[in-house]
Fold this sequence. Notes:
By secondary structure, the chain is α+β, with helices and mostly antiparallel strands. The chain contains twelve helices and 34 strands. Helices cover 16% and strands 39% of the residues. The strands form seven sheets. The chain has a 16-stranded antiparallel β-sheet with strand order 17-18-19-20-21-22-23-24-25-26-27-30-31-32-33-34. Strands 7, 8, 9 and 10 form a four-stranded mixed β-sheet that branches. The chain has a three-stranded mixed β-sheet with strand order 1-3-2, with helices on one face.
Amino acid sequence: MRLPALAFAVAVALAATGVARAQTPPGGGALSPGNLSAPGLPGQQPPAAPSEPSAPPPPAEQVPTASEPAAPTGPVISAIDIEGNRRVEPDAIRNALASKVGSTMERSKITADVHALFALGYFEDISVDAQPAGPNQIKLVVKVAEKPAIRDVRITGNDELSTDDIRDLVDIRTAQILDLDAVHRNAKKIQDKYVEKGFYLAEITPKVVPQPDNTVSVVFAINEHAKVQVKSITFVGNEKVPSADLRSVMETQEGNILSFLTSAGTYREEVFQRDLSLIQFAYYDRGFINVRVGKPQVEITPDKKYLFLTVPITEGEQFNVGKIDYSGDILGTKETLGTRVHTESGALFNRSQLQADISGLNDLYLDQGYCYVNISPLTNVNNDTRIVDLTFDVQKGPKCYVERIDIVGNHKTRDRVIRRELRIYEGELFTGTGMKQSKGRVNALGFFETVEVTQKKGSRDDSVIVEVSVKEKPTGTFQVGFGFSSVESFIFTATLQQNNLLGWGQTASLSAQISSLRSLVQLSYLDPYFLDTNWIFSFDYFRIDADYYGFLRSSNGGDVNFGYHLTPDLLLFLAYGLEHVDVEPSSLSAAPGSVGSVYSAFSSTPPIANQFQSGLNSTVTLTLTYDKRDNRLFPSNGYYGSGSVQYGPKQLGGTFNFIRYSANGRYYRPLFLGIVFKTNATLGYVEGIQGSTVPISELYYVGGINSVRGYYLRTITPTKAVGATANPDTSLTHYPEFPVGGDKQLVFNFELEFPIIEKIGIRGVVFADAGNAYAPNENFFQDKHSLVSTPAGLLYSVGVGVRWFSPIGPLRFEWGFPLTPRPGIDQPVDFEFTIGNFF
């Protein structure tokens, strides 16, 4: 009866011995059956155990017969103890083990367990001990040595980049387990940032400094060296294309005196390599299809301050375009396709024009629903005649229908706010124009930093999934500004605005502006899709006080506005406005005696009698607008037009009865190097109705930073002689010429806006303005000004300015120079500051 017991003992011993051999580390160090160890190296996986021959079979007399029960294949695990862990919970370690309490201990499982624990990334050493725990039972003791935790992250040696800027790049944090790969990865990110700033030779040395309690300090030691600037870019071999033309296509530029403000002179390897491709493309656009741009030479001066770049070029010969043909799936006729191609036979080969032609053909097929169209330009080059024959090969694929539209990236903005701007619809035929229009309309909302509209294959060959991916930006602003102006002395502005209220696409704002000449408080609300319909609803409440250099105009009131989307870009509005207006003498018109006597003098002076009236404006306004701008807040492309009629008859209960016609047109076009051309034209005309005279408070006064710059605010207007010269009996001796307002106005503005420091939103502007306000007895463009000659009946100015699109809103600093100054009124230069866009 002792044979089974003997077999059991041998089986246990052999099983233990087998596991020990499986876990023996390379290089020797045999382990006892009771001590199964598998030490690991920091940050490395333990090597796989070498293969071992199978244990010899037991003697024949020990092999059980068929009538006897089989001996166990190995000991049963009765317990698993964890030792050495301080931060990692024991249960987390046990959960990673394939060996469990109650299962049989196996060599392969132990090996897998060690690998699994190393894979957690928490340990730098692991050993597994097997200790007998009773008949056919064994206890596993898993001993771990944890990697140290990060106590702190230090940055030393940095002067040119702030510590906060560098910390924003680093993604390792205190209390994390040390990961050397992550440390080196962050050092590379810091170095890339220095290279981006022009410190090409900056050295970032990561260090791990041991600290008590199994912690470490991670130190990024920075040696910035001097900033390296590109001193010159030289081309060798460019005989037919000027060096200036090649430099103009490169992002890498030579340094200049403004390099401390711009990125000119900064050398970045990846940007320079991209520039080499752009140089090659510039030659392709001039017909040099065999051009070769060689390996550039980069030389650094001994003081390591400057770089000299030399680019060798082999130009080759210019090629002309020969025959142009079409093959494959032709839509309509070849002549139809030819209307979309602008490359002409006999012209120089031009890569950019070829790409534009392919895009034009693509659009033709995409608008017919062929979303998988592929157009390949096949070329046949004849080197002897230097002719390139082109064949546009078309593979149109099946027509596609939009299976679904996915909106991603909108964490705040509701899906419907984006979907209602789309011009592609689920279940309908795919259209390329609809894709472009959708991107433009979503981008024009002004809620997103980036908008991408892409397509991917649907569940069938004839279906497509459209994905609209957006990156949201803050749409709520709280702005406070304070500045000085030569005209208004001081300017204080404050605005609380949300352009995407609760993610519904609505706009609400509360704003205030105060200066020595005006004050404004306004509360506004706009819902561009009222109750999820094509109706627009808005209302405004305002309180305005303004000094017109002869009288004070104070008003408070509001309006309610309903609009409708006639088409996606054409809108019709109908508004009702109610405004109470008070008019009284300003401090500039004060004369001896009481205010009452001054007001009496105003109303009794014949040239302006009955003009200073207080009362009620009750009007309805009909407005039609057409908006094709790429962005409603900061447009750089497109155009905008509006026309309105404001009507205030007696039947609406107003004191003042007049009709006002207004028109406004704006045009935007991007040019080159980030320059944007802008123009604005404003036209206005007002006349009394039903026997009423238009009061002075409702007439036109031009001039100022939002009108004709270079002329003081609201000083361009018709005047009348009301002083002692005109009426010896009047007390208004201060006003030999009194501004009485015009019943017509005309203003033109032209701007070139260009980047200065694009990354922080600083742009410059040069401008030219022209405008005037005309009296009832004057016509548009009529020169009847008494103080200065006005060609074409307009006053002119030019100027320069700086604009900063700051976190608190657009700040404008502009200097205007009047070209038709009026003696005694205008200064050689007028500086003005304000917050907000112009047009």
